[in-house]
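Hi C.,

You asked whether I'd gotten around to modeling the 202-residue construct. I have! Everything is below, sequence then structure, no commentary in between.
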Amino acid sequence: MSVSKDQFLDAAYDGKIDTVRQFLAEGGDVNCINEQKRTALHRAAIMGRSEIIKLLLDHGADKTLKDACGDMPEKDARTAGKHETLEILLHYKAKWLAAEAEDGWALLASDRVAHVQTEEKLRIRMTEIFNFATKQYHVITQNLTTKAEALFSSSFEKLRNDHLIGIAQNELQNLGGKIKPDDIEGAVPRNKKYLPTDRGNE
């Protein structure tokens, strides 16, 4: 028996992953919506259904679709306190940046920012992610020829690059991000400002 759209959306909310899989296997629209314009991703995010979130994203679920209230799945997860789900959504967003985004700075969340740089001669793309909430730095390096990826992670403290972190802090704020005082405590020296143009002079 085939799975209907409403059954699919309910399954995402209730955590019934086999029903979600069946709907997708039958060619169902992963981005279908209910009367409130909420997708399966919205419904799974607010309940913290992490495995269903991954399944939906792997099948092309659009993270940027807004419901009737103007909210995206990321906001649902954040509002509901579903931190694992939020991290999954942000991870997929970073992976999209690494694969598709143009070079430059992009806001991932209110407390984290990414910088994408492509080296065509070397055939690599580097995506640097600065998480001011956890004071963590990550780099996704992608080989543009083979599509192979490598991940490097470090704490801000171990990175020992106040200049780079200061630029990231400025860019995050310029893009509309908001950093709590605790998020920058110890991240960069106090009363020190950096110009975004300094990024290329390291």
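If it helps when you're writing up: The beta strands are 104-109, 112-119, 124-131, 136-143, 149-155.

Thanks,
B.
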